[in-house]
Design brief:
- This protein is mainly α.
- It has one domain (about 5-280).
- About 65% of the residues lie in helices and about 0% in strands.
- Strands 1-2 form a two-stranded antiparallel sheet.
- Strand 1 and strand 2 (about 130-135) form a beta hairpin.
- Helix 12 packs across helix 14.
- The radius of gyration is 18 Å and the shape is globular.
- It comes from Streptomyces subrutilus.
- One of its GO terms (molecular function) is oxidoreductase activity.
- It holds the Pfam family MPAB_Lcp_cat.
């Protein structure tokens, strides 16, 4: 990727501000600079996946997939502020992922405790009157499985260093540690268990009006300035293509096939390479 250091720095800073927020530099310094034992060592697959630009595609795909559980989507629609403050929600999520992946064990546990406290307060009912509680292990398990599946799919398609079969299973096992700390019961610990868990949830899923509204907002009404919308549209199209076909069908979304699919995938790889280039500090001048 060519380009001057000024362009690289501006683009990287703009992307970091979007995903990390005003407290991003301080959080990054604390997460990566505080000495102490970590939940995951530098060799663990969770660090490889969560530190790669493919997370931009995987995260968006995860939001779409997660929306298909009616009770989980009702909780998001009523309590998360994803419409009023979508960037704030993204920043809180990215900070949580960074803390549990890279921070000291003490900091990671504090991040988990904060999320559990928030989940415990979130209660309500769907439009049909079905009650939900964000701390319900069933809902936590769905959110976790959909997220891990989406992150791993994105990494294997767009990551700089896709994992081998053993690495994929170890990634799922790594994420299970965080899931169990959040209250997920018996989280999947390899790809086969992850696929089986997703299949178990299928009968409970449907595209509610809230899910369709969320997809429309995320894909067609992003809160972005116009110059940023064309690259975002490529990101969104690749996130849709990453979804399992049954999930696309439920949401009424289509993805190109044949040559169109190959062109879309190439655009996704080019976009993630650009993001990776922008957000990787350039080598020191020598």
């Amino acid at each position: 990727m060519s380009g001057g250091p000024d362009l690289r720095g501006r683009l990287g800073s703009a992307l970091f501000r979007r995903v990390a927020g005003p407290a991003g530099p301080a959080n990054r310094a604390r997460i990566h600079g505080t000495p102490g034992p970590r939940w995951f060592g530098p060799e663990r697959p969770i660090r490889t996946v969560h530190g790669d630009a493919s997370m931009f595609v995987g995260g968006l795909s995860a939001l779409l997939l997660q929306s298909l559980h009616p009770r989980a989507m009702a909780a998001v629609a009523a309590h998360s502020g994803f419409r009023g403050d979508p960037w704030g929600r993204l920043q809180r999520t990215s900070t949580f992922l960074a803390a549990t992946t890279y921070a000291t064990a003490e900091d990671a546990q504090r991040a988990v405790d904060r999320v559990r406290a928030v989940h415990d307060r979130i209660r309500g009912a769907t439009a049909e009157g079905e009650p939900y509680h964000a701390a319900d292990p069933h809902l936590l398990g769905w959110v976790h499985a959909a997220e891990v599946d989406s992150f791993l799919r994105a990494h294997q398609r767009f990551g700089a260093h896709p994992l081998d079969a053993t690495g994929c299973d170890e990634y799922v096992a790594d994420t299970a540690r965080v899931a169990a700390a959040l209250g997920v019961e018996d989280p999947p610990r390899d790809r086969a268990a992850l696929a089986a868990r997703l299949a178990q949830y299928r009968p409970a899923l449907s595209a509610t009006p809230e899910a369709l509204d969320a997809a429309r907002f995320v894909l067609r009404e992003p809160p972005l300035p116009w110059p940023a919308r064309p690259p975002y549209a490529l990101l969104a199209a690749n996130a849709v293509a990453l979804l399992p076909p049954w999930a696309r069908g439920m949401l009424g979304l289509r993805s190109p096939t044949g040559p169109g699919e190959r062109c879309l995938r190439l655009s996704g790889r080019a976009l993630t390479r650009t993001i990776r280039w922008a957000m990787t500090p350039p080598p020191p001048a020598g």
